[in-house]
Design a protein that fits this description.
3 domains, four-stranded mixed β-sheet, 328 residues, Ubiquitin-like (UB roll), globular, alpha+beta
Length: 328
């Protein structure tokens, strides 16, 4: 039993053994019946506690396919309510006016009630113009990182072990889509993840790595506000690549200027670096396409690149790749 912030208790189980023999759930079509535990599977969820043995008749977190099954279920429940957005058990309701919001906050709970979903009112917020959702602050203007996360990274001490470095990289890479060219900025730090640095405390000790560490912390503090997509705004993907990383920004044309919607960056492997400035590479476009895929469905957009190889020497693989995606 794990204590919650509210003072209540959360039952948990160790399902490492069960998860190892569970087939991963990749089926895309929603199945509402997946919300409950099948009768024959209930004994598999048994846990031992100081209070006795317990079996779960409803899905619980910790099982390998719990998140996927619940996401399919909640998508099915809310599928015809376009003003609702669900990420597993976090549900956002967006309205343009107070009158709309009153209607929406009646419709969603009613839909939950119809499907036997119980909500906790103490964990809900209604009628607010700004809120925290999935680790970000969301308001009518856009999305930005949480001040407490910015402060935690700003005061993060220089890593002296690989474990602490991995922890720092995990924290800041959570905001990869908010910080432009983050992979390039962090590139001097990745070498310290190699085997030769496994048992040393000479981590982030060179001038360039210390500078990269400090710059990365500052970058999140200076992060650009990401706007909300406007359905009638022209879209563009601007890409660039260096010797160590590639990056891109998905942006929209609003009020006579480009407004960023999301950033993408990726560290290049040694074999990929050799192609960047010689012939150009289609992955400079395909990687951002895959990342921004859901934002580009059923709309037109344009590409631009800040360096020249693809412009001066068109890449056949790029043309094939873009054509292949044009009917999806």
């Amino acid at each position: 039993m794990v204590p919650k912030k509210s003072g209540d208790w959360r039952p948990c189980g160790d399902y490492h053994a069960l998860n190892k023999v569970t087939v991963p759930d990749r089926y895309p079509i929603p199945h509402i019946q997946d919300f409950t535990v099948k009768l024959q599977d209930i004994p598999k969820t048994a846990i031992i506690t100081p209070f006795g043995l317990f079996e779960f008749v409803r899905m619980l977190l910790g099982l390998r396919n719990a998140a996927q099954s619940f996401q399919r279920f909640i998508d099915q429940v809310l599928q015809d309510l376009p003003y609702s957005y669900a990420y597993i058990d976090d549900v956002l309701i967006a309205s343009n006016t107070r009158e709309e919001h009153l209607e929406h906050i009646k419709a969603v709970p009613q839909r939950f009630n119809d499907h036997g979903i119980v909500i906790n009112p103490s964990k809900c917020q209604f009628g607010v113009s700004e809120l925290v959702f999935l680790g970000h602050i969301v308001n009518k203007d856009g999305i930005r990182p949480l001040p407490e996360k910015i402060e935690a990274l700003r005061t993060y001490p220089r890593p002296t072990t690989q474990r602490k470095l991995r922890e720092f990289l995990g924290l800041i890479n959570f905001y990869n889509r908010i910080v432009p060219n983050l992979a390039s900025l962090l590139s001097p730090l990745y070498k310290y993840l190699g085997k030769e640095y496994k048992n040393t405390k000479e981590i982030v000790s060179t001038e360039d790595s210390i500078a990269a560490f400090e710059a990365a912390k500052t970058a999140l503090s200076d992060a650009t506000l990401l706007g909300h997509p406007k359905h009638d705004a022209p879209l563009s993907i601007a890409t660039d690549a260096s010797d160590v990383a590639t990056g891109a920004v998905l942006q929209q044309w609003v009020d006579s200027s480009w407004q960023p919607l999301a950033f993408f960056s990726k560290k290049l492997q040694p074999a990929e670096r050799s192609t960047v400035h010689l012939t150009g590479s289609s992955w400079e476009f395909t990687w951002p396409l895959d990342t921004f895929d859901t934002s580009l469905k059923v709309i037109s957009f344009m590409f631009s690149r800040t360096t020249s190889p693809l412009l001066s020497s068109p890449h056949a693989n790029l043309a094939v790749t873009l054509l292949d995606r044009s009917d999806t």
